[in-house]
Amino acid sequence: MSLRSLLSWNVLVPVLAMFALAVAWPQKGLGLGMVLVVAVLLAGAVLTAVHHAEVVAHKVGEPFGSLVLAVAVTVIEVALIVTLMISGGDDAATLARDTIFAAIMITTNGIAGLALLVGALRYGLTNFNAEGAGAALATVATLGALTLVFPAFTTSVPGPAYSPQQLVFAALASVVLYALFVFTQTVRHRDFFLPVTDKGTVAPEDDHAEPPTGKQTAASLVLLLVALVAVVGLAKVESPAIEAAVAAVGFPNSFVGVVIAMLVLLPETIAAVRASVRQRMQISLNLAYGSAIASIGLTIPAIAVASIWLKGELHLGLGATQIVLFALTIVVSVLTVVPGRATRMQGAVHLALLAAFLFLAVNP
After folding, report:
1. CB atoms within 10 A of CB 132
2. Which of 10, 22, 163, 280 might form a disulfide with 156, Cβ 3.0–4.6 angstroms?
């Protein structure tokens, strides 16, 4: 890379963000100045993550580009969850459940809903491949029910939890379904996950610029991972300040997890909205549903392995209100994806469900 490239914002920001993370991580408390610096670098890391994800996506093409961003974010998110669970605390028993459910609500209602609304406002009608979106949604529904709904009704152990044998089954099923989905998305039925025109045919590439070289792609991939580590790490560093702000306005402490989940998923949200602006709604849905699938398919197996040495209970079962929200989200999502096209109305409905989730998180 040339000196000019090394001094560009998309290289300097991830490096500065990692430096700030190294400085702030060991500290027990941050002053107001450091909190502001971390917040600025966190926003910068989000923007650079989106930039480098698009560079990689341009090189490898869709749907591989969406898969790279979704998996990268989720792997780091899983590492953060396991780390927090190992450190213990009062909320450790429900941390995985709350994080996964927040990720499902944010991706299926927030990311998808915002992309649908923005795309419909710009073009009047958004088009996507119902076969690909339907397959992804079916996987989300199955994984969500298997890992978050069933534990609320099983009777092998007390509480909304799985027995060790049940947890192993859920973990294996999650891995198998995730692997099959990735194979379907990238190999067997790759065309199901490509952007389509209003006639249902695969849309031509909208970017006529020369694809990046191998070295540029490798550099962007490394910087993407660095930026995502910085996003998750700085979000964790900011959590005490976020927690103080949440307490100051009278919200329950569990809402801190929702805020952090929104920060972690911000790169995918921006990427999905930018894709919808370019009339590539299928890419937006790939990011939304793919992130939800990865969040469940990678987190549950990791938690199952970590439970070997983790102390304390692991509560995965949702409450009654959350189950209703999950069921309603799946029903509405089915009605959205089956026609293969959507208007601003569908986007608004999904955003209303996200608003309901956020409101009930504040007022359980």
Report:
1. 25
2. 163
DSSP 3-state assignment of 31? coil
In whole angstroms, give the CA distance from residue 282 to residue 181: 16
Q: Which residues contact 95 (CB under 8 A, 6 or more apart)?
A: 81, 84, 85, 257
End-to-end CA distance of the chain: 52
Q: Which domains does the chain have, with CATH numbers?
A: 66-209+229-362 (1.20.1420.30)
Q: Strand, coil or helix: what is 196?
A: strand
Q: Cα dihedral angle (224, 229, 235, 237), rounded to 10 degrees?
A: -140
CB atoms within 10 A of CB 312: 12
By the 8 A CB rule, do 57 and 277 touch? Answer: no
158 token code pair = 């007390």
Maximal C-alpha separation, the chain: 63
| Amino acid in the structure at residue 224 | L
Cα–Cα distance between 250 and 116 in angstroms, integer?
33
CB 333 within 8 A of CB 218: no
What is the number of H-type helices and E-type strands within the chain?
14, 2
- The stretches in the chain having pLDDT less than 50 are 208
pTM of the model: 0.82
List, for residues 221-241, the tens digit of each pLDDT value. 888 888 888 877 887 787 777
Alpha-carbon dihedral of residues 274, 275, 278, 280, nearest 10 degrees?
-170
Peptide bond connecting 63 to the previous residue in cis, omega within 30 degrees of 0 = yes
Write down the pLDDT at residue 252.
77
Cα-based distances in Å from 149 to 61, 145, 183: 36, 5, 26
pLDDT for the residue numbered 99: 82
Percentage helix, strand, coil, to 5, in the chain? 75, 0, 20
Euclidean distance between CA atoms 279 and 273, whole angstroms: 10
Determine the length of the chain. Answer: 364
- Cα–Cα dist 261/52, whole Å: 21
- Asked if 364 and 340 count as a contact pair (C-beta separation under 8 A), the reply is no
What's the CA angle centered on 45, arms 43 and 47, to 5 degrees?
75
CA torsion angle 299 304 306 307 (round to 10): 130
